[in-house]
Amino acid sequence: MRKVRPALLKGFDQEFLPQEQLQFNALVELIRRNFERFGFLPIETPSAERIEVLTSKGGAEKEIYALSRLAAEDDDEAAAKGALRFDLTVPLARYVAMRERELAFPFRRYQIQRVWRGENPQVKRGRFREFYQCDIDIIGRDTLSYLAEAEIPSIIHAVFHEMAIGAFRIRINNRKVLKGILRHFDVSDDAATIVLRALDKIDKEDERSILAELERQGLSAKAAGELYRVIASRRETNETLELLADLAYRNERYEQGLDELRKMVSAIRQFGVPETAFAIDLSVVRGLDYYTGTIYETTLTEHPDIGSICSGGRYDDLASYFTNTRLPGVGISIGLSRLFARLKEANLLRPIARTPAEVLVTTLDPDSLERYLRIAASLRAQDINTEVYLERAKIGKQFEYANKKGFRIAITAGPDEFTRGTVKVKDLAAQVESDVQLDQLAARIKHMLNPKAH
Predict the structure, then answer these.
(1) Coil/strand/helix, residue 215
(2) Which class for 441: exposed (0-12), middle (13-18), buried (19 or more C-beta within 10 A)?
(3) Angle at which helices 175-184 and 189-199 pack, to 10 degrees?
(4) Quick check: 156 and 172 in contact, CB under 8 A?
(5) What three-state secondary structure class fits 160?
(6) In percent, how much of the chain has pLDDT > 70?
(7) Which of 339, 265, 336 is nearest to 299 (CA)?
(8) 324: which DSSP letter?
(9) CA-CA distance, 134 to 156, in Å (whole number)?
(10) Which of helix, strand or coil describes residue 437?
(11) pLDDT 10s digits, 7-57
(12) Which of 76, 140, 199, 353 is the most exposed place for a label (fewest CB within 10 A)?
């Protein structure tokens, strides 16, 4: 038989050992728990959507994977009309448009699923072609209060505070302010996207190259320098608000954006987000063709090289391609696969507090199998994860298995222990063993697993 070389596709190669998968799952559960704590409800959408749905916003065709079968029939609708989703926002728009009569608005949803995107994979930067996104959105019908935008930083703060990966800063800007600034410098609508894209590289490229790009888009050297200094400088929130108030950029869009920023900052403080955890940052420029108001990016203070760990913003009309109902919203996304890869590389992941492999019941005497199974069943009934070693093997091999898999406790018992109504309980980390009465076994193990709770 011909052997096939076991290998993974480039960009589809985020595959973990069990202990790493447990760490990844723990992050998923932490994020899910915090989303639900704020009243968000779960949804899932199919992995594949109709092509016209995914391309409704335009501009994403190069990143979309179409469906096909190796032996598809001519009338296979999925192969002819389907493609894998490249984000969770477009499927959400389709979902809300199809179900708006059944949903309660404001609709607060979270979604944790895989997406597929035909980008150039960069494993060291955590960029993959298949990855998990963790999204929340608050969607209104016709209107949505600015308080929804102000609540988002409190959710971001809750997630990353519990994740305990170091100090972080939620960087906030407003697209109306950005557009108002560009209007002051007479940047045309055609050039605005390129200018903002250049400003978005302030943290990645040197000043000279960015100024050169601004001048290529028609700005004078003086205007390019002034624009760069305003956008690139870092200040505390109140100082930035004072600067924006003092600047002579008086136009309607700028004034509206500045008013929104002031209200946002006041409300964020009411939501209890610490002053050290957020700041207005004029260099946050993301979502140029999509977001219409507040925009967010979150970065780790001690590890800026990791880049944004959570981003999003406000949009005025979620589903205009699918319905005439106006559905404004605000949302954020955590690219969990990328985040996990970068946190692992930076050694910022905490060991998991509890693993499925907690207690191993070893089997010394094959004739006592039923007794071993009863011990395991009694522990599981007390919410203690327990496995019975079912293969015939010497006790040394069973302990080797326990250590390799990460069990914390091993139970052994032979005819003498069963006669006395006891078992031997071994703490595998401390290498300490003691005799325990069977009727006290569950309580003893719970104390060993979580001594602070007892």
Answers:
(1) helix
(2) buried
(3) 110
(4) no
(5) helix
(6) 98
(7) 339
(8) S
(9) 12
(10) strand
(11) 999 999 999 999 899 999 999 999 999 999 999 999 999 999 999 999 887
(12) 353
- Maximum Cα interatomic distance, the chain, rounded to a whole number of Å: 93
CB 47 within 8 A of CB 85: yes
Q: Rounded to whole angstroms, how far apart are CA atoms 351 and 228?
A: 43
Residue type at 319 in one-letter notation: A
Residue 68, both tokens = 């096909």
Which residues contact residue 411 at a Cβ distance below 8 angstroms, ignoring those fewer than 6 apart?
359, 360, 361, 362, 375, 423, 424, 425, 426, 441
Quick one: DSSP state of residue 5? P
Q: Are 192 and 179 in contact (CB under 8 A)?
A: yes
Distance CA(176)–CA(282), nearest Å, equals 11
Environment class of 402 (CB within 10 Å of its CB; exposed 0-12, middle 13-18, buried 19+): buried
Q: Which two tokens stand for residue 438?
A: 């069977």
Is-contact 295 284, C-beta < 8 A? yes
Tokens describing residue 436: 């325990």
Specify the 3-state DSSP secondary structure of 317. coil
Of residues 18, 20, 86, the one with CA closest to residue 351: 20
Q: Structure tokens of 103?
A: 């949903």
Amino acid identity, position 297: E
CA 338, 344, 345, 350: dihedral to nearest 10 degrees?
140
pLDDT band at 59 (very low <50, low <70, confident <90, very high): low
Amino acid at 153: P
